[in-house]
Amino acid sequence: TPPESPRREHLKMAVWLLTTMLTAAFSYKVAAIMPFPVQVLVWSMAGTTVLGGFYAFFLHREGTKA
């Protein structure tokens, strides 16, 4: 799809939501069998992954130099 296509944005949202749900489900299962300090680590890593995906899909623009 073209870079500014509404369909492209819908597909990115669908992919991000599905990967977020997969990350949450995996983290839930893994954290359930871990001691509390490791649970905190698992959930913080999951949150970082979800936020990083959001940034990569929706906030970062290609071609910009920092």
TrEMBL record:
The keyword Transmembrane applies. It comes from the Eukaryota. Keywords: Membrane, Transmembrane, Transmembrane helix. Pfam families: DUF6490. The chain crosses the membrane at residues 14-34, 40-59. InterPro entries: DUF6490 (IPR045501). This is Uncharacterized protein.
